[in-house]
Amino acid sequence: MQRKIFIDTKVILITRMVKRILTIGLLSCAISESKASDTLRTSLDDIISKALLNSKQIEQSHLQIGERNLAVKQQQMELLPEISLRGSASYATNMPIYDQGIFNKPSQHDVIHYLYDTGVDFYLNLYNGHKDLMKIESRKLEQVLASIEWSNDKALIKLEVCNLFLELERSYMDKALIESDIIDQKAQIKEINDLYHSGVVLHSDVLRMELELSKREMLLIQIVHDIQALNQKLKFIIDVDAEIIPIPHDFKRTVESYDDAWSYAKHHAFSLQKSEEEVRLKQLAIKQSQANYLPELSLTGNFTFANPQIFLYPYNDSWYHLGIVGLKLKIPVSSIYRNKQLVREAKISLEREQVRHHLEEEKMQNQLLQAHLDYKLACVQRDVCMKNVGLATENARIIKNRYFKSSALVTDLLDADMEHLKTLFELETAKIAIQKHYYFIEFLKGTI
Questions:
Q1: Cα(371)–Cα(376) distance, rounded to whole angstroms?
Q2: In the chain, what are the domain boundaries?
Q3: For 206-211, which contacts have Cβ atoms below 8 Å and span 24 or more sequence positions?
Q4: Of 132, 210, 320, 444, most Cβ neighbours within 10 A?
C-alpha cells in the first residue's frame, strides 16, 4: 500500500515537472519570437532607403520644390491680359443752387437721380523693359535652388545615416571583441585561481585579474549604452521601433585622386551649385534694376453700358454703351535720379556674391584636400593596426606562457592582454574611419 502511494506520488511529481518544462519551453519560445520581432537586421543601403522615405527634412525640401514650381506658373500667368467686370448703382439728390446768396433760399436744380454703370476693363502689357520675363527667370532660378537644396538635404541625411550606421557597426564589433575577451579572461582567472589554491601564485594575482575583469565588464556596459544611444538616433531618422542590428559587409571601394575629385566637385558639389545660382540671381537683379529706366507701353480698353448718358453733352436719361481702346505710354523720367543708387546697390551685391562664391570654392577645395589626407592616413593606420594585432597576439601568447611558468609577473600578463585588446579595437576603428572618410569625400563631391 505504501509502495503504491509512493509510486502515485512519484507519477504526480513527474507529471508536474513535465508540465513545468513544457510551460518554460513555451515561454522561452514566445520570448525568443518577441525578441526576434523587435530586432531589425539591415544593411547600409536598406537603412539609407528607409531614411530617405521617412525624413521630415527631405519632405520639407520636396514641398518647397512644389511651392517654387507653382510660383513659376503663377508668374507666367502675369503675362496674360487683365480683364475685370465692374458695376455700380447710385442715387443722386437734387442739387440746390444758391443763386441769391448762401443766406437766401436756394433754387432746386433737378438732376437724374438714378445712375447705373456696368462695363468691362481690359489691360495688356506690351513692353515694360522685359520686367515680367525677368521675374519669371528669377522664379525659375529659385526653383533650381530649391532642387539643389533638396538634393543637399538628401545627401546630408545619407551622410548622417552612414556615420551612425558605421558607428553602430563598430560598437557591435567592439561588443563582440570584449565579450570574447571576457570569456578568455574568466577562463584565465580560473587557471590562476587553481594555481593559487595549489600555492603557486599569490592571492594578489587573483585579485588583480578579477579587477581587470571587472573593468572589462564595465567597458561592456558602456558599449551596450553606446549601442542603445546610436539605435535611438537611427530609429528617429528611419521611423522604426525595432532594434537595429547592422549586417556586416566588406568595404572594397577606393577613392579617386584629389585632382579628379576636385575637377568633379567644382561642377557637382551642392554648396558650389547653390553659390553659382545665387550669383545668377544677383546678375538678374542688376538687369531688373536697369529696366526701371525703360518706358512702359500697354494696350488698354473698356466697354461701358450705363444710364444716364452724361459722357457727352447734351445729357439724357437713356441707356447707352461705349467702347474705348487705346495705347498707353509711360516714360519714367524720375528714374533718372531715383533709380541710380538702386543699380549701384545691385552691382555691389553681385560683387559680394561673386567673392562669396570664390570663398566657397576655396573652402570646398580645402575640405576635399583634408578629407583625402585623412583617408590616406586611415589606410596607413589600418595597415599598421593589422601588423600590431599580429605582434600583440604573439606577445600575449609569450607572456602568458612565461607567467604560467613563473617567469613573468601578473602585471606583464595584464599589460599584454590589454595591449592585445587595444590593438583589436584600434583595427576596427581604423576600418570604420576609412569608410567614414570615403563617404564624406563622396558628399563633398555631390555623389553620395
A1: 9
A2: 1-37, 251-295+331-448
A3: 208/410, 208/411, 208/414, 209/185, 209/410, 209/414
A4: 444
Grid cell 481702346 in the structure block, residue: 325
Secondary structure letter of residue 130 according to DSSP:
S
CA dist., res. 271 & res. 357, Å (int): 9
| Helix 131-197 / helix 56-77 crossing angle, nearest 10 deg | 180
Cα dihedral sign for 112, 113, 114, 115? positive
Cα Rg for the chain, rounded, in angstroms? 42
What is the C-alpha to C-alpha distance for residues 237 and 57, in angstroms, rounded to an integer? Answer: 10
As a whole number, mean pLDDT of residues 18-26 equals 43
Give the pLDDT band (50/70/90) at residue 10.
very low
* CATH T-level topology, domain 251-295+331-448: Outer membrane efflux proteins (OEP) (1.20.1600)
Nearest to 282, CA basis, from 413, 182, 134? 134
Compute CA distances 102 → 19, 97, 108, 134, whole Å.
119, 9, 13, 60
Other Cβ atoms within 10 Å of 386 Cβ, number = 14
Across 49-84, b (16+ Cβ under 10 Å) vs e yields ebbbeebeebeebbebbeebeebbeebeeeeeeeee
Residue with cell 576603428: 429
User: Long-range CB contacts (< 8 A, 24+ apart) of 160-165?
Assistant: 160/237, 161/44, 161/47, 161/48, 161/51, 161/234, 161/237, 161/238, 162/44, 162/48, 162/435, 162/436, 162/439, 162/448, 163/436, 163/439, 164/230, 164/233, 164/234, 164/237, 165/44, 165/47, 165/234, 165/246
Residue 399: φ, ψ to 5°: -65, -35
Q: What is the 3-state secondary structure (H, E, C) of 64-113?
A: HHHHHHHHHHHHHHCCCCEEEEEEEEEECCCEEECCCCCCCCCEEECCCC
Q: Which cell is 92 given?
A: 443722386
pLDDT at 204 over 80: yes
By the 8 A CB rule, do 18 and 222 touch? Answer: no
Give the pLDDT mean for 247-253. Answer: 82
State which H helix or E strand residue 55 sits in. none
Q: Angle, nearest 10°, between helix axes 203-238 and 131-197?
A: 160
Question: How many Å apart are CA 267 and CA 435, to the nearest integer?
Answer: 24
Q: Which amino acid is at 228?
A: Q
What is the chain's percent helix, strand, coil content, to nearest 5?
70, 15, 15
Residue 132: CB atoms within 10 A of its CB come to 16
H runs (alpha helix) in 291-339: 335-338
> How far apart, in Å, do the first and last CA atoms of the chain sit?
84
More confident residue, 27 or 370: 370
Show Cβ contacts of residue 277 under 8 Å, excluding neighbours closer than 6 positions.
Answer: 141, 144, 145, 148
Whether the pLDDT of residue 300 is over 60: the answer is yes
